[in-house]
Design goal:
By secondary structure, the protein is of the alpha/beta class. The protein contains four helices and four strands; from the N terminus they run βαβαβαβα. The longest helix has 9 residues.
């Protein structure tokens, strides 16, 4: 990874970044794929701290053979959508949106549709 793909457009080869430190832009900025940051941590607590140490919070994904343990970790992620053993994605039946600087409110679902309507109050005596 880490190189531009030949051809028209702005495409980037799938890339895994490692040895990321808080001083690096990749630690603080919202990266869009195909880029993944790989962190070595001492335990789940440190992993959750790093995951939540951001101004963004659209979605998070936890992968593990132990679904209960992964679910417990996913519940602690500061994000609008958390997934266990699944990629971050949306479904029109479920509310979708982020927290922090990744969004306010939700789209999709019955809750989300209300974000796009104007409600008028008319009071007549």
């Amino acid at each position: 990874g880490g190189r531009k793909v030949d051809g028209d457009g702005f495409f980037y080869a799938p890339t895994i970044l490692s040895a990321i430190t808080p001083a690096m832009r990749a630690y603080r900025e919202e990266l869009f794929g195909p880029v993944a940051c790989l962190f070595r941590v001492a335990d789940e607590t440190e992993a959750i701290e790093i995951a939540n140490d951001t101004h963004f919070g659209l979605g998070g994904s936890v992968w593990s053979r132990d679904r209960e343990r992964a679910t417990a970790v996913a519940r602690q992620l500061a994000c609008g959508c958390a997934f266990v053993n699944e990629l971050v994605k949306s479904d029109p039946r479920l509310p979708f949106g982020g927290v922090k600087q990744s969004g306010y409110g939700r789209e999709l679902s019955q809750q989300g549709i209300r974000e796009f309507v104007n409600i008028k109050t008319l009071w007549v005596e």
